[in-house]
Design brief:
The complex is a heterodimer. By secondary structure, chain A is an alpha+beta fold. Chain A has two domains: 75 residues, Beta-grasp domain (Ubiquitin-like (UB roll)), CATH 3.10.20.30; 67 residues, DNA polymerase, domain 1, CATH 1.10.150. Chain A contains five helices and five strands. Chain A has a five-stranded mixed β-sheet with strand order 2-1-5-3-4, with helices on both faces. In chain A, helix 2 packs across helix 5 and helix 3 crosses helix 5. The termini of chain A are far apart. Chain B has a seven-stranded mixed β-sheet with strand order 3-5-1-12-9-10-11, sandwiched between helices. Chain B has a five-stranded mixed β-sheet with strand order 7-15-14-13-8, with helices on both faces. In chain B, strands 18-26-27-28 form a four-stranded mixed β-sheet, sandwiched between helices. In chain B, 30% of the residues lie in helices and 23% in strands. Chain B folds into four domains: 155 residues, Aldehyde oxidase/xanthine dehydrogenase, molybdopterin binding domain (Aldehyde Oxidoreductase, domain 4, 2-Layer Sandwich); 197 residues, Aldehyde Oxidoreductase, domain 3, CATH 3.90.1170; 161 residues, 2-Layer Sandwich (Aldehyde Oxidoreductase, domain 4); 186 residues, 2-Layer Sandwich (Aldehyde Oxidoreductase, domain 4), CATH 3.30.365. In chain B, a hairpin with a 2-residue loop joins strand 22 and strand 23. Chain B is built from 21 helices and 28 strands. In chain B, 60% of the residues are buried. The chains are: A alpha+beta, B alpha+beta. Bound molecules: FE2/S2 (inorganic) cluster (2 copies).
Chain lengths: 155, 794
């Protein structure tokens, strides 16, 4: 056991957790933010993607300890109060989600991708989302959403 | 009001009202829910496929840290808790019925597949439960596993009750007439196809949280279900023998189902049982490995097809002999999927005067096989559309023209097929034409030649499918062996201020019911959509209903809502007549207003609602106060969506990689309520079909070990595997429901695999390749290319 402190969506969270606690469990179980999901056990699906110091990472693939002192943003921290982030808005307008389970990870991946590459092409979006699996949408509308989100984000 | 109807009403692509919670991380899935005092369940599963259990020693586990209970099949037997049941059986050719072996919640005496639950450990934390499970000692006497289902009849017997490992041997159609047609045919086209085994893979793994309240002796179960009422019925009536009122089942937000969350699984039942035993809420959530091992799989057929043609290339007969794999136990709909939902679809869009099919359902030491998006209809469509393409090539006709001359003509509806169904309506040439236009079929050869210059093989393939969905008249379902009704329910409650709460028995796990159903109500009542709230997924709130599967939500559930709203309008007219001092017959309802015909006297819908709840001036002698109506809608027939999908592919001979370069889908779903949502369903279905045709294959080795039990080994379609899709529609409104709607949820998964495999074969046809099995992986395609070249060289 040991104390871990990190900033989660702007708020300092300090929890006493076992040393082998995964970051995803820290977020879901210990802090109780359940917007970030777990869809696999082999780091393949991307349902758990969050931003760690501005970089999208799979929260199922690292220990909470490794995130000590870092700044984390999850899907809950993306909107500005009641106003959706442009990428969230784009997913809504383009029907980029169905069951919503992959959505938090998709949106977090998309935001980072577009932040790095404002003029992202359809091909780059498809390659960029390779680590996020969606079983519902066939990706067509996710790709449209990311394109629209990129435009809104100033691409 | 007119405006509002236009924006929100039937036919407009309203953005979904449910989106915001999902986009902001506020979705509430079962695993997101925790209860005070909750403990975690972990299932110890068999790591061998077929064995007798000689002994189970749980002593060490019992006293491990954090453990509050360890249970085995013996404990379940003592409490006489029943196992999952089969919801539909069929008669066999020899007059016997489907063999239904018991399926205990935890293994009793024997394990029958890798993943079969042997014991459950309940502990304070999941980690403690897992560690304790490692201390359980199970002594197995291993038996020879049966994995190859085609030869399962020769394998070791898996269940005492199932001789030759054959659950059923079923037939449909006229064998004599069909065989005669085959004998006198000018040409018989023969084909054997395999429908590969798939894992549904809803992204949310299954989860259950059960709680027992000792005060009123009742249970609450949160679970990942497509049909909470059926789950309650099975648990209460068949497993625990308690009144339904003592069990509340809530299926909150559910992260996809695709069939895999229809059935009651043993884990849910064990959590319910253990919650009372332990006196604390019990939670279980599958990890993905458990999902691969224990969620019901889909498909897994082999079909031998004989298609008889006359001298004009018209089909005169079709015979299909099928063997399918149902796995270790019979799951709820495992029997109906390869029989009723498969055999009855064999006429496709074609006028076929004689059809016969025989289906053998086999037991194997693999996990249960049951419904997966399309459920039986993809298998029927695959074998038929592969055969149609093969036949066209063999007789030297363009595949589109060969289909065209065999289509059921437009004026032949209602059309009685030779396999029990009566199609109410359809018109097949328009969607064929439109799909061909969408993909620029007529210029395909130019594109093929251009690709050849780049050293690539380009191919085009189509599939014209039909599906029967919106299950369907209860009486027919009953006559065919179904043990449930197939109606749907709705309750429409008008609140005093005129807002509406709609309670539906169907369930949304991605389909967007909160939006589509609200559109129907808003459109019919001429009120803004934001005034309508849709409630589903909780047996304490919603009327008994069948849930969502088989593309039934709109055709059955939507129709029930429409009927309940009609009752609201009828009662409102009576209230309006009283308030306006007019005769009921003179009241017209339009755009949200009740108007006395030919006058300007009117009452808005909201005023009527208020009068119903504050009945100071109200015809109380003849009319009850309040404004709330129920409807139970039992369809008079299935609905029959149809369409044509055309795939275009390019194959790189150096790698064997098949790239899907274009896709045109033209579907007839009848009237569309929300075209945006429909399109999303089509996209998702096509993606799953492309997955089946190119990537996905659940593979057990000869020992019954699932080799593809993770996303590292089971290839899910990802964004860069797929193209964008062109989607179009034709419309022949359904003739027997008020909304004129059919179903759209499964069409893509039904239509796409044969279109794609036909395209792959077409691409390789210059090399003399005439067949390709699913999935057409790069390795398989590359090998086919190499082999054809070595044949050419000889
Ligand atoms: S849960 Fe992290 S990648 Fe699947
Ligand atoms: S929306 Fe359901 S998995 Fe992507």
């Amino acid at each position: 056991m040991g104390e871990i402190s990190l900033k989660l969506n702007g708020k300092l969270e300090t929890k006493d957790v076992a040393d082998n606690t995964l970051l995803i469990d820290f977020i879901r179980e210990h802090v109780g933010l359940t917007g970030t999901h777990v869809g696999c056990d082999t780091s393949q699906c991307g349902a758990c993607v969050i931003h760690l110091d501005g970089v999208s990472v799979k929260a199922c693939t690292m220990l909470a300890k490794q995130a000590e002192g870092s700044e984390i943003v999850t899907i809950e921290g993306l909107a500005d109060g009641d106003e959706l982030h442009p990428m969230q808005q784009a997913f809504h307008e383009n029907h980029g989600l169905q069951c919503g389970f992959c959505t938090p990870g998709m949106v977090m991946s998309a935001v980072e991708m577009v932040t790095k590459n404002k003029n992202i092409s359809e091909d780059e979006i498809r390659k960029g989302l390779e680590g996020n699996i969606c079983r519902c949408t066939g990706y067509h509308n996710i790709v449209q959403s990311v394109k629209a989100g990129a435009a809104k984000m100033g691409g | 009001m007119n405006e509002v109807t236009k924006i929100d009403g039937i036919g407009s692509s309203v953005r979904r009202t449910e989106d915001k919670k999902f986009l902001t991380g506020k979705g509430r899935y079962t695993d997101d829910i925790n209860r005070p005092g909750q403990v975690q369940a972990y299932f110890l599963r068999s790591d061998v496929a077929h064995a007798e259990i000689k002994s189970i020693d749980t002593k060490a586990a019992q006293s491990a840290p954090g453990v509050v209970g360890v249970f085995t099949g013996a404990d379940i037997a003592v409490d006489k808790v029943g196992g999952p049941i089969c919801g539909w059986v069929v008669p066999c050719r020899d007059g016997s019925s489907t063999k239904e072996p018991p399926h205990p919640l935890l293994a009793q005496g024997k394990v029958r597949f890798v993943g079969d639950a042997v014991a459950v450990v309940v502990a304070e934390t999941m980690e403690q439960a897992k560690s304790a499970a490692e201390l359980i000692d199970v002594d197995y006497n291993e038996l020879t596993p049966v994995v190859d289902f085609v030869n399962a009849d020769k394998g070791a017997q898996i269940h005492e009750e199932v001789p030759n490992n054959c659950y059923f041997d079923w037939e449909l159609g006229d064998e004599g007439a069909t065989n005669k047609a085959i004998e006198r045919a000018a040409k018989v086209v023969k084909l054997s196809v395999r429908n590969n085994r798939l894992v549904p893979n809803a992204m949310e793994p299954r989860s259950a949280l059960a709680e027992y309240d000792s005060l009123d002796e009742s249970y609450t179960l949160h679970t990942t279900s497509q049909n909470p009422h059926l789950t309650r019925l099975v648990l209460a009536a068949f497993m625990f023998a308690i009144p339904e009122s003592k069990l509340r089942v809530i299926a909150p937000d559910v992260g996809g189902g695709f069939g895999s969350k229809i059935y009651v699984y043993i884990e849910e039942a064990v959590c319910v049982w253990a919650s009372k035993k332990i006196g604390r809420p019990v939670k279980w959530t599958a990890d993905r490995t458990q999902a691969f091992l224990t969620d019901c799989h889909g498909r897994d057929h082999v079909n031998d097809v004989q298609l008889a043609l006359d001298e004009n290339n018209k089909i005169i007969g079709l015979r299909v002999d099928t063997v399918c794999n149902l796995g270790a136990y019979l799951s709820a709909f495992s029997v109906v999927v390869p029989t009723i939902l498969h055999g009855t679809l064999l006429s496709g869009q074609y006028d076929i005067p004689a059809i016969y099919t025989n289906v053998k359902g086999m037991a194997t030491n693999t996990v249960n096989v049951d419904a997966y998006r399309g459920a039986g209809r993809p298998e029927a469509t695959y074998l038929l559309e592969r055969t149609m393409e093969t036949a066209a090539k063999e007789v030297g006709m363009d595949p589109a023209e060969f289909r065209r001359i065999n289509f059921i003509p437009k004026d032949a509806f209602p059309y009685q097929t030779q396999v029990a169904l009566q199609y109410d309506i359809g018109d097949y040439e328009p969607h064929l034409d439109k799909a061909m236009e969408m993909i620029d079929y007529s210029n395909f050869e130019k594109r093929r030649a251009e690709a050849a210059k780049r050293g690539m093989y380009r191919g085009i393939g189509m599939s014209s499918y039909i599906e029967a969905c919106g299950l369907a008249p209860s009486a027919v379902v009953g006559a065919l062996g179904g043990r449930v009704g197939q109606w749907e329910s709705a309750s429409v409650r008008v609140n005093p201020t005129g807002t509406i709460s709609v309670f539906t028995g169907s369930h949304s796990h991605g389909q967007g019911h909160a939006t589509t159903f609200a559109q129907i109500v808003a459109d019919k009542l001429g009120i803004p959509m934001e005034n309508v709230e849709v409630i589903h997924g909780d047996t304490d709130k919603t009327p008994f209903g069948m849930g969502s599967y088989g593309s039934r939500s709109l055709a059955s559930g939507g129709s029930a809502i429409s009927k309940a709203v009609d009752k609201i309008i009828n009662k409102s007219k009576k209230i309006a007549a009283h308030l306006l001092e007019a005769s009921e017959d003179d009241i017209d309802f339009k755009d949200g207003k009740f108007v006395v015909g030919g006058t300007d006297k009117e009452k808005a819908f909201g005023e009527i609602a208020l009068a119903a709840y504050v009945p100071h001036n109200y015809p109380l002698e003849t009319l009850e106060p309040g404004l709330e109506e129920n409807a139970f809608y039992d369809p008079t027939n299935f609905v029959f969506p149809s369409g044509t999908h055309i795939a275009e592919v390019e194959i790189d001979p150096a790698t064997g990689v098949v790239e899907v370069v274009d896709w045109a889908a033209c579907d007839d779903f009848g009237n569309l309520v929300n075209p945006m949502i429909v399109e999303g369903q089509v996209h998702g279905g096509i993606a799953q079909g492309i997955g089946q045709a190119l990537l996905e294959d659940a593979h057990y080795d000869e020992n019954g070990q699932l080799l593809t039990a993770s996303y590292m080994d089971y290839c899910m379609p990802r964004a860069d595997d797929l193209p964008s899709f062109k989607v179009g529609y034709t419309n022949t409104p359904c003739t027997h429901n008020d909304l004129g709607v059919k179903g759209c949820g499964e069409a893509g998964a039904i239509a796409s695999p044969p279109a794609l495999i036909n395209a792959v074969i077409d691409a390789l046809s210059p090399l003399g390749v005439t067949d390709m099995s699913m999935p057409a992986t790069p390795q398989k395609v590359w090998k086919a290319i190499q082999e054809s070249q070595s044949v050419a060289a000889e």
